[in-house]
Amino acid sequence: MAVLVAGGAGYIGSHMVDRLIEKGYDVVVADNLSTGHRAAVHPQARFYEGDTRDAQFLDDLFAKEDIEAVIHMDAFSLVPESMKKPLKYFDNNVIGMIVLLEAMQRAGVKYVVFSSTAATYGNPERIPIHEADRKEPINSYGESKLMMEHIMKWVEQADGIHSVALRYFNAAGAKADGSIGEDHHPETHLIPIVLKVAAGQQDRLKIFGDDYDTTDGTNVRDYIHILDLADAHILAMEYLKQGHPSDVFNLGSSTGFSNREILEAARKVTGKEIPAEVAPRRGGDPDTLVADSSKAREVLGWNPQYDNIEDIIKTAWTWKQKHPNGYADRS
Ligand code: UDP
């Protein structure tokens, strides 16, 4: 039996597939390559190019493959874009989830582990954030993910499809050998942009706002290594297969770094000056997002390996140095 990774050509998906294959799973990837890369798909995974909003595409895939569980990471995830194009986010993320669940129901697939986000919390009521804390998203990306979580509750009751939602904080880094990594067009995420400046591909970093309610005025985020994230999905899938109930878990390092601290850490790792300037706030950014991830550690037995931000940035820098133009350098 195989695991289907929806969105397996993306940044998180490609690391997910790599980890599954390393652990001996048979892996099928579905991706429409709208933001993912064909070159990011592991050569040992069976690749189906198509859209998870396309019921016929999914029915054909489930007919050909013996899928036991789905890891669903096929979603749009950019906060600024979600503020400008909310309908694009509800269409892809919410409708995509519904069409996927309907196809799973027809095919009799009972387990789904899917990407949720710290953005479901909005401006958190306390730091670190616990799973049961208030959820009032302040961007449509977070709202779309919260809707996906709510949908699962009813689908489980009616259709017996069990789920784990994993609320990621900030995914960062790359496989240590630099063979796969982050490559978005356009790039909007802090660490890859900082490294673009370090590599001389961009003049300077714009720090979006320095008047937030944090120690240095810049946003504080919780960065978690991409392979530690991937491992949590495997644990969650096995947890469901063992018959445990559906649940939701935060995935973070439980340590916050301000945007200025990330810049300083990157200067240290790369040995480059990395010019930066303060720019206006970006819409939809809460002051601080830091996870309490003790539930994932206790219930799933999750044990993240990367606990140092410089080590995480180092892996992203290795990828950047080996592939200055991302996957364009690999095809
Ligand atoms: N950020 C920034 N300059 C950039 C890109 C991002 O100051 O060029 C900030 C952003 O406002 C946020 C943090 O970096 O405070 C992390 O943003 P990112 O887009 O990497 O992840 P998100 O938290 O939105 O998932």
From TrEMBL:
GO terms for molecular function: UDP-glucose 4-epimerase activity. Pathway: Carbohydrate metabolism; galactose metabolism. The keyword Zinc-finger does not apply. Keywords: Carbohydrate metabolism, Galactose metabolism, Isomerase, NAD. It holds the Pfam family Epimerase. Residues 3-252 form the NAD-dependent epimerase/dehydratase domain. GO terms for biological process: galactose catabolic process via UDP-galactose, Leloir pathway. SUPFAM superfamilies: NAD(P)-binding Rossmann-fold domains. Its cofactor is NAD(+). It catalyses: UDP-alpha-D-glucose = UDP-alpha-D-galactose. Its EC number is 5.1.3.2. The keyword Cell membrane does not apply. CDD domains: UDP_G4E_1_SDR_e. Transmembrane segments: none annotated. Belongs to the NAD(P)-dependent epimerase/dehydratase family. Homodimer. This is UDP-glucose 4-epimerase. The gene is galE.
